[in-house]
Design a protein that fits this description.
single chain; globular; alpha/beta; 369 residues; D-Maltodextrin-Binding Protein, domain 2; signal; 17% strand; 13 helices; NitT/TauT family transport system substrate-binding protein
């Protein structure tokens, strides 16, 4: 999910430190990583903004391609002038939220679930969502020998990345809408929901310990490369086939003290998304180059190509879908009804969009006063 609410509190379905409910929407595991605080080169005569440096965080994942490509192509640095970018990468939403809260990063690309969780735990004090970044890129993929129709999912073992993460909540909601019963905590019921780290889901599929998975890209396409079949694209369940998968968040302290830097990063994000959409093949190659630098391994074409096609890069945070995702978590019993009023501050984004001749975007009534 993508939003958070001041009154929202996670149920004690797990100890706060032990079980990161509402983890990452697009994460690849539960351990954080860091790229060593990579800094982007700055031209000698470039003029600094109000901060000498801005620290940004994101995941080495295609759903965070705005950050990957924007850094790789120097599009953010161009807007920041003499203010240096310090980039760090994470593999888990809670780690990125902790870094934001600690001041280790100022701005982050992150999924809806950790956005909600971070906002909720801080009672609305620490972060704001300031832009969207990506939509889509989540699929139900299955063993075609065992599952041929959606109704065949009943009685099968289906993996999700983690208890309470965005895909887990989406799958639980889909199950409920089918009229099937599953205990959210244990995953037992008419469908066996098997919480499995995305990094090992392909091996679990090959071994036969799961019959399919509701997962983000590129895990879905990795499974397809192993013989799985796409049974459902989650985007088809949403109005206009769009739902938030990646947000841009900022520390409220940094937003207050350095609004010019935040605007510059948002200009970079808007221009990066524009470049991605105008040059999809070049952008895909750029994102893969960045991934290879960060992980040591590029994605093969049979994984990269279909994964890339299923993700939409956009500036709109799709706030209404974030609110709906939070409601799904409440319905599943994983979140007490939250108050997400104030999670968004889209004023800087609207300023950037207006200057670029683009229409503003909606906060669905969840904007800061």
């Amino acid at each position: 999910m993508s939003a958070a609410r001041p009154l929202a509190t996670l149920r004690t379905v797990a100890a706060l430190a032990a079980l990161p409910l509402l983890l990452t929407a697009c994460g690849y595991g539960s351990e954080a990583t860091d790229d060593g605080g990579k800094q982007t080169a700055v031209a000698a005569d470039a003029k600094k903004l109000s901060a000498d440096e801005v620290s940004i965080g994101y995941f080495p994942n295609l759903t965070h391609a705005t950050a990957l490509v924007g850094v790789q192509e120097g599009l953010f640095q161009k807007e920041l002038g003499g203010t240096t970018i310090k980039a760090s990468t994470f593999n888990a939403g809670p780690s990125e939220i902790e870094a934001l809260n600690a001041g280790s990063i100022d701005i982050g690309w992150i999924g809806p679930s950790p956005s909600i969780n971070g906002y909720t735990k801080s009672k609305g004090k620490n972060l704001r969502i300031i832009s969207g970044s990506a939509s889509g890129g989540v699929k139900l993929v299955v063993n075609p020998e065992k599952i041929k129709t959606l109704d065949d999912v009943k009685g099968k073992k289906i993996a999700t990345p983690q208890l309470g993460n965005t895909q887990d909540v989406a799958f639980l909601n889909w199950i409920a809408e089918k009229g099937w019963k599953v205990d959210a905590q244990s995953g037992k019921g008419d469908v066996s929901v098997v919480r499995t780290d995305n990094k090992i889901t392909p091996d679990a599929y090959k071994s036969g310990s799961i019959d399919g998975a509701w997962v983000p890209e590129p895990t879905a396409s990795k499974l397809v490369s192993e013989g799985a079949k796409v049974l459902l694209d989650e985007s088809t369940l949403w109005p206009d086939n769009k739902f938030v998968i990646t947000n841009i968040i900022v520390s409220q302290k940094f937003l207050k003290e350095h609004p010019d830097v935040v605007e510059a990063v948002l200009r970079g994000s808007v221009k990066t998304n524009e470049w991605i959409n105008a040059n999809p093949d070049k952008a895909k190659a750029s994102a893969n180059t960045a991934l290879e630098k960060l992980s040591g391994k590029a994605l093969p074409a049979d994984v990269l190509d279909p994964a890339w096609k299923s993700i939409t890069f956009l500036d709109d945070p799709l706030a209404a879908t974030l609110d709906t995702e939070a409601q799904h978590a409440v319905k599943a019993g994983l979140l007490e009804k939250p108050d997400l009023k104030g999670i968004y501050d889209l004023t800087p984004l609207d300023k950037v969009l207006k200057a670029a001749g683009k229409p503003g975007v909606s906060d669905a009534g969840l904007g800061a006063e």
